[in-house]
Amino acid sequence: MASDGSETQYGMSEVGENFMAGVFSHLPAILAFLAPLPNSYDRIQPNTWSGAYLCWGKENREAPLRTASPPGVLNGLVSNFEIKSFDGCANPHLGLAAIMAAGIDGLRRSLRLPKPTAETNPSGDDSLARLPIELSESVEALEKDEVLKAIIGENLLTAVVGVRKAEIEYYSKNSEASKNLIHRY
């Protein structure tokens, strides 16, 4: 609920909307934390419930960010939100740090969410931007994101970018690398 006791137009608190809007606005860059391997982007495809387009939705399983309310919550009030693009190979601590940094930016700047995508598949909406389709695009977005650099810290960001670029190079030179992940994980 908002500070005056009411919820925003989307059924969440103002603080919740600001935080989620921050995550939304930085999502292409934080994918470098949430989807850390070139192989991670094979999963983030349209029509797979993994969130391939830059959008958010209420109970929409195709949106990378979605609000959800468990049964029994009145009037569609939002009790949590979900990030669909968080890959199982990601370091959960770094992923959460990126999410928190993006959310902090949303709180600081009082960001607002755009209109949610309809409860239909966003892949049919030509107005929506596609999220990065490969790790190099996420790394490029992260390198350009001065807000995340300031909040997370330049040293950690430099290390993450360096490791991601090494992964990109390794996978580009080793065609069997993706198959080896199956045995490793």
Automatic annotation (TrEMBL):
Keywords: Ligase. Transmembrane segments: none annotated. It comes from Acorus calamus (Sweet flag). It holds the Pfam family Gln-synt_C. One of its GO terms (molecular function) is glutamine synthetase activity. SUPFAM superfamilies: Glutamine synthetase/guanido kinase. Gene3D superfamilies: Glutamine synthetase/guanido kinase, catalytic domain (3.30.590.10). This is GS catalytic domain-containing protein. Residues 1-185 form the GS catalytic domain. Belongs to the glutamine synthetase family. The keyword Nucleotide-binding does not apply. The keyword Ligase applies. InterPro entries: Gln_synth/guanido_kin_cat_dom (IPR014746), Gln_synth_cat_dom (IPR008146).
